[in-house]
Amino acid sequence: MLLFIKSFFRFSLWDLTPGVNSEARMIWSAALDDCPMDAATLTLPDGGNSVKAVVALGKNVVVYDLDFRASSAAAPELVAKFELPCPVFTAHMHHSGDMIVCGGEDNLIYRLDVNTGDILESCRGHFGPVHCVRFSPDGHLFASGSEDGTVRLWQTNVGENYGLWKLVEPTTTESSAVQSSPPVVPASV
């Protein structure tokens, strides 16, 4: 399957299954309120019966439920719509289906709760608009790419031990050593 953003405020789903069709077949095409900037699909871990499309659309992130298994697939059903404080250029859903990361014109990355619509966190670090965000396959990290020329990695659950990220709590000995006065070194003549 390929989710395709077309000009003129439309996006469409295409079947690219080899062996079934000799050429790509458009399953449906839907009109949008604004020109989409980014779209991504995700099959949720419920046996493949739930496919979501997340679309960055103006100042909104919209989530559609796709059902392409029926013989005459209907247009996608709008499941959720989240309004953000700036134009959004990119969005991606966590593989669990309960969280979305998105970024845009204000240089921030937002983590959204899909169930409540709340902004869980806003991540600062870029010095230009954010044009791409994606979760890692295991969902522990997400990456963001910006117009400032940087790609940054972020932890989905901050403080979690993962790869090179190790949470080290200061011990009593370390904190008292920091507070002690520096050693006296005799001056040489």
TrEMBL record:
Transmembrane segments: none annotated. It comes from Dibothriocephalus latus. The keyword Cell cycle does not apply. Belongs to the WD repeat STRAP family. PROSITE patterns: WD_REPEATS_2 (PS50082), WD_REPEATS_REGION (PS50294). One of its GO terms (biological process) is spliceosomal snRNP assembly. WD repeats lie at residues 123-164. InterPro entries: Quinoprotein_ADH-like_sf (IPR011047), WD40/YVTN_repeat-like_dom_sf (IPR015943), WD40_rpt (IPR001680). SUPFAM superfamilies: Quinoprotein alcohol dehydrogenase-like. GO terms for molecular function: RNA binding. It comes from the Eukaryota. Keywords: Repeat, WD repeat. GO terms for cellular component: SMN complex. The lineage of its organism: Eukaryota, Metazoa, Spiralia, Lophotrochozoa, Platyhelminthes. This is Serine-threonine kinase receptor-associated protein.
